[in-house]
Specification:
By secondary structure, the chain is α+β, with helices and mostly antiparallel strands. It is built from 3 helices and 3 strands. The N and C termini lie close together (9 Å).
């Protein structure tokens, strides 16, 4: 099953989420590394003032992606901001 999602994040939040999603495509990441990465993203989102009111949305999107990756879903991010999530069979 493939699911395509396009979170409504713009500017820096959208760019940063695409970068984060690209990091999650690395199949060699262990569970703890994924957890550390998402916690770093959440911490960054709470500290920065550049998200134009998108802090909670950004954090939720990042946590959703990391949770799906921890459940062994495959994540693909393209340059247009489309995130495709595929469940492994």
């Amino acid at each position: 099953m493939n699911i395509i999602i396009q979170p409504e994040l713009d500017g820096l939040a959208g760019e940063r989420l695409r970068t984060f999603a690209a990091q999650l495509t690395d199949h060699s990441l262990c569970e703890q590394t994924i957890r550390d990465l998402v916690n770093q993203e959440a911490s960054w989102a709470k500290r920065t003032r550049l998200l134009n009111g998108q802090t909670h949305s950004y954090e939720a999107a990042a946590r959703l992606l990391s949770d799906l990756r921890l459940l062994k879903w495959t994540i693909r991010a393209d340059k247009n901001g489309i995130l495709e999530i595929r469940i492994k069979k």
